[in-house]
Amino acid sequence: MPYRLLKGEPLELVKRLLEGDSRAAARLISMVEERNPSAPAALASIYPHTGRAHVVGITGPPGVGKSTLLRALSRTLLDKGMKVGIIAVDPSSPFGGGALLGDRIRMQDLSTEKGVFLRSMGTRGTPGGLSASTGAAVDILDAMGMDMVLVETAGAGQSEVDVAGIAHTCVVITMPRSGDDIQAMKAGLMEVGDIFVVNKADLPGAEEALRLLEGALRLDPRGRDRVPPVIRTAAFTGEGVDLLREEILEHRRYLEERGLWEERFRRRLLQQVMNLVMEEAGARLREILEGGRRCAHVLERLLESRETDPYTAAREIAADLLRDND
Predict the structure, then answer these.
(1) Are 38 and 59 found together in one domain?
(2) Which residues contact 221 (CB under 8 A, 6 or more apart)?
(3) In a domain, 267, yes or no
(4) How far is CA 257 from the centre of its chain?
(5) pTM of this structure
(6) Band of residue 269 on the pLDDT scale cut at 50, 70, 90
(7) How do residues 1-34 score in pLDDT, each as one tens digit?
(8) Does residue 20 come out as left (phi exceeding 0), alpha (psi in the -120 to 50 range) or beta?
(9) At what angle do helices 134-144 and 39-46 cross, to 10 degrees?
(10) Are residues 305 and 316 in the same domain?
């Protein structure tokens, strides 16, 4: 059954969000991260107002200058009169679980700019370089009226391909002579990238990195009808940043002209639903297992007689639960 109608504070927050209130957006994202019981109903109510923002994933190995380039890109988008939402996913603290907020510190000056909403989120142990709440945060900023939502992943290297599941356009950033260009090809980032960037291009080896990436993309055996562009940037000086902005906007036009925009939106919805199903199922499963009713007999066999092992036990318990729900 659908979530009940909102009332009280959540209803007021949604009303303010749809009017473009940044404080309401911040509070709703916090409710999602805190697993507030009112959060699902609030997200359900804003869903009809989503689907307009261009979601751009910014990914790549650590140290390539993602945050600095994102900051420069945001400024050039603001110069074009666009409203920009930024979700910077930082690695979580291993102690408290919160974000270390390195990206928030590096982009602090952007947070005071009119037309920008910046939020740091911790991965909270989620693989793939994203937070489990990232999809909900994207929806909130979309409903708020942002023209573009930039999602910067945590910088975990090979695990960062999940951003392709929530973005219309995926920008993969590398840098010269660091091995990151080779790493990108090995990691699967080559497959998810719509635009490739060689950042810190004022360093030696930039031309070599450009040639390597361009050559690898031309030899891609999957037969794409569009070869992703490779752009040279130097975020500190602004070199290539305007070109990156135009390539991102051009990619949206490409998707829309070929009917791929809705396809990517459907892909994002599917990923979001699958994540939510896994979250709901996991919570329900924990309730069942922590009660001990289903697995007491298996634990006895594990601990006392060693008639079974943890792997077989897990399989038996899962099969038992699934039979009850057939």
Answers:
(1) no
(2) none
(3) no
(4) 25
(5) 0.83
(6) confident
(7) 344 556 678 889 999 999 999 999 999 999 998 8
(8) left
(9) 50
(10) yes
